[in-house]
Design goal:
alpha/beta, Alpha-Beta Plaits, 4-stranded antiparallel sheet, 12 helices
């Protein structure tokens, strides 16, 4: 199909998404601060996980990147420009939200609208996904189940092939089988058409293998920004007799401790070497690496970027 040209973009070496001290307040100076001084740059094609608890500021940040919300302070650049009321940027950006609202359209009409708006729309992919998710093209969107509406959002988000693709809890309402389909479709399409994908989700361990980088928000603040590979193995759970655990974690950074009936479980930041493992075996301690979901929980709980950030933090 033909459509508007690709428009301007970041220069060589410039980030696709740039946030500098972004703050968003609701209700004036004394109101709620949804974002507080968020600073981050995202370069080149990548799949980024935007993680955090409910109310952490994830949706506000994604809406701001899509030009649907306005920073109270700081600057936002998407594809080298301010996204607000910027048609050249917005046509290369798509935001799919859990609570996505649609006008009174049929499924096929929504897909036709997507094709009109996005210059890189992939009609063949949209047709394939329509069949894969078993969506009836002539059914009114208002009559779709929650899961079917989520599937429609996935189709619109993937088929747009937008240079900046934003998903806000896209699998809410989907069962495990359909969620797995989405992850496979996302990875396959990203491999064929690399772009900047930012994915907000609570199902962190389900998407861990997809994510190249994670950003964790807590109460509007960016508490962790790191490459996923650098985080793996960067914190462990140590469980065993209390004296042995205390000896093992002495002079190390611990994120939490819990003791019960002479046994202690401690979450320890830092990587282990062979001597550590030998000592743990001698002390009869159980060592288990934290999953990405557990890391996210501890990062949000501690509010400390330095505690978990490895040397390779971006």
């Amino acid at each position: 199909m033909t459509g508007p040209g690709p428009g301007p973009g970041p220069g060589p070496g410039e980030p696709v998404v740039s946030l500098a001290g972004v703050t968003r307040r609701f209700g004036g100076a004394g109101g709620h601060e949804a974002l507080a001084g968020v600073t981050a740059d995202i370069h080149g094609p990548c799949i980024v996980g935007l993680l955090g608890r409910n109310g952490a500021g994830k949706t506000t940040l994604l809406r701001s990147l899509a030009g649907q919300d306005f920073a109270s302070a700081g600057t936002i650049r998407v594809l080298g420009a301010d996204p607000v009321e910027n048609d050249a940027v917005l046509r290369r950006t798509t935001l799919i939200r859990e609570d996505q609202t649609y006008p009174d359209l049929k499924v096929r009409q929504a897909l036709a609208a997507g094709a009109l708006f996005h210059p890189k729309w992939d009609a063949e992919l949209a047709a394939e996904l329509l069949e894969a998710y078993e969506l009836p093209p002539d059914r009114s969107i208002k009559k779709l189940s929650r899961g079917m509406r989520a599937a429609l959002g996935i189709i619109l988000g993937l088929a747009a092939h937008a240079d900046v693709t934003l998903f806000d809890e896209p699998v809410a309402g989907l069962d495990a089988v359909v969620r797995d389909m989405f992850y496979r479709h996302l990875l396959a399409d990203y491999t064929a058409h690399p772009r900047c994908v930012i994915l907000s989700t609570h199902l962190i361990d389900e998407v861990a293998d997809l994510l190249e980088r994670i950003l964790i928000l807590d109460h509007g603040r960016l508490v962790l920004d790191a490459l996923t590979d650098d985080l793996r193995g960067n914190a462990v759970t140590v469980t065993g007799p209390t004296p042995g655990v205390e000896r093992f974690v002495a002079d190390r950074t611990t994120l939490s401790r819990r003791a019960l009936a002479g046994r202690t479980t401690a979450v320890m930041a830092g990587r282990l070497d062979d001597r550590d493992r030998q000592l743990a075996e001698h002390l009869r301690l159980d060592l288990r690496p934290l999953t990405l979901q557990q890391l996210a929980m501890h990062a949000a709980g501690s509010g400390s970027r330095a505690t978990l950030s490895p040397a390779g933090t971006v």
